[in-house]
Amino acid sequence: MSSRVHGGLLVALAWGVYAIGIQAPFLLDDNVFITNPTSGIGDLWSFDDYRNRPVMMFSLSLNYAIAGAEPAAFRLVNILIHTTAALLLYGIVRRTLMLPRCAAMKPEAASGVAFAVAALWVVHPLNTSAVTYVWQRCESQMGMFFLGAIYATLRAAEGTKRALWTSLAILSCLLGFGSKETMVAVIPVLLIYDWVLISGSLRGALRARWPLYTLFAVVVALGVTVVLPNTSTNRGGFSVWEYASNQPAVLVDYLRLALAPYPLCFDYGRRASMSLLAILPAALLISGMMAFTVRQLIRRSWQGVGGAWFFLILAPTSSVIVINDLMCEYRMYLSLIPVIAFGVAGGRMLCARWNIAPGKALCGALVVYGGLTVLRNYDYRSVVSIWESSIAAQPENERAHYCLATPLLRAGEIDRALHHAQRACEIKKNYMTQWTLAEVLYTAGEDERALELCEACLKLRRRDPRIHQQIGRVCRKLYKANPSEKAYLERCLKGYRKSVKLRPKKVPFHEEFAIVCAGFGQMQEAMELVGTVLRLDPSRERKIAALALSSANNKISREEQTLGVRLAQLLVQVSGGRKVKPLVNFGRVLTAVGMTDKAYAVYSQAMGLPQVQNNKGMLDQIGRLRAALPRR
User: Fold this and answer.
1) Predicted TM-score (pTM) above 0.90
2) Per-residue confidence (pLDDT) for residue 369, from 0 to 100
């Protein structure tokens, strides 16, 4: 087959196995960086939340600017990135196999092997989280630029359009560094690849491509002095020794999943094990693999390059640099390539020995791996299903349990949510497990228990405004049920006051506290809070006005009607009675609760404003509202 046919097949395979996951919802960090209105994703040039990955954030922001917060649009781009990476991989393997220092294959044979490697990689289920999980675009996008740098360097070494391809290699490196910090692995990988397979010597590689390696030296210097000091990764509570000593076992599991990718897990929640029996066998195996890699590098073999590729790409996340998770599938995105390459080489030898057609063996492997990837994408169809699959694979993962409890609670499945929140606390009692259980208990009406858990969370994170806000909510509910217990009212107000003090510029905290104060008749404090809300975000006036009117139209609850009147009155007071909209809205609210005489006076006040007197249409409109009032 020609290279174009192979390319078309790779595109078809990529879209064929990942199409089912396009409509999956946003998950975890997707909601932090994409759907969260405070993330700054609407600003194409704002990288404050993740300044170490500006290219990645620009990519997401551009996606958002074009299609909004639509998961399908983001995943279409992710699949396009993965497809491009597969095509680059095909080109790299094909041209590498034709190098004299590698296998010196003829183009047709090299194309067949390259297609096998790229096809197995593009459909492999271990890559699913790097493609279907939107936020992990940072991994696949970095991988695409990583492969782009290798491919461009290979083309530059062929001698045609050397300046162009060297420039593209440099550009790919820069874009990769801006996508994810682990792109730093391209420096030793490319140097080894160049030294062993292209130039034949380290001096020859440096001499031939000095602009590229000069850039690498600058990047390393910047990384050490600028990026590294501003990078915080350890939120998992591991020590350096715990993390590093457990990584050989993690690498063995990565290799196992590369060969037999089942069951896969979105969140392994793996714990550090300090048992010598758990650490030593894996450490010996990995040490043997490293020794084999060094030996093959000395012999200038492609196998040494493959081993170095595997270990060096995983080095930033599987060494002494502590990250909050011991094991994540997406970290194997690039390191899976040499594993597949070794597998294809071994498969070709077995096919020759057992007289099996290589094409049939490849088709069988593609059906198996592609089918597993389709099934894996099916797990992503909802937030509930992805966490259910995680619990099925790792039942003792407390994070999977409390992350499942949250969407179940939103769906109204309180009993199931309570079960998983309690199970999370049983496995490990920490801030997040207790916080989630408190939310579920609050919704279930078990307010006293919810308050106890909130107080326990407060001891762990005293400066978290959400805890203070939640304590305010719980105590508000308890006070409504027990009006004689003034301590609940005091604790409620104290909690809300602390939340706005900790987040003085976060509008939702002030807005909710203003509504609570209005409900309790704390009008002076409520007016100050509404003033803060409108100063921070003037567009919130419309939302508060709509809430006031809807509350006033609640014919069942007198308490809600009173709240509506108070909120509408607050908007008038904050505006000083000089704005038309707050006055008209106040008039409508008063009309809805039957206070027509006061509504008449408010409409008259609005009609007396200079801007209304000078606008006949507005004057007539308010006049009709006033005339329609039933007068006593």
Assistant:
1) no
2) 97
Angle between helices 71-97 and 137-157 (to 10 degrees): 30
Tokens representing 527 are 């007016």
- Mean pLDDT rounded to a whole number for the chain: 91
- Tally of residues, the chain: 632
Angstrom distance (rounded) from CA 148 to CA 307: 20
CB contact burial 583-606 (16+ within 10 A = b; e otherwise): bbbbbbbbbbbebbebbbebbebb
Do 335 and 121 contact (CB within 8 A), yes or no? no
Cβ-based burial of 323 (10 A; exposed 0-12, middle 13-18, buried ≥19): middle
Q: What's the rounded Cα separation, in Å, for the pair 470 and 512? A: 11
Looking at residue 431, its amino acid is: Y
pLDDT tens readout for residues 280-307: 999 999 999 999 999 999 999 999 999 9
- Rounded Cα distance between 70 and 63, Å, is 9
Contact 323, 272 (CB under 8 A): no
Distances (CA, A) of 513 to 498, 517, 518: 10, 6, 9
Query: Does 5 have pLDDT greater than 80?
Result: yes
- Rounded to the nearest 10 degrees, the angle between the axes of helix 186-193 and helix 210-222 is 160
Q: How far is CA 253 from CA 77, 264, 593, in A?
A: 30, 11, 66
Query: Quick one: average pLDDT of 209-236?
Result: 70
Backbone angles phi, psi at 109, to 5 degrees: -65, -40
Structure-block tokens of residue 6: 């192979």
Scanning 158-275, the segments in alpha helix (DSSP H) are 162-177, 186-193, 202-208, 210-222, 240-259
Cβ neighbours of 220 (radius 10 Å): 12
- Could you give the dihedral angle defined by the CA atoms of residues 248, 254, 260 and 261, in that order, rounded to the nearest 10 degrees? 150
- What percentage of residues in the chain have a pLDDT greater than 90? 70
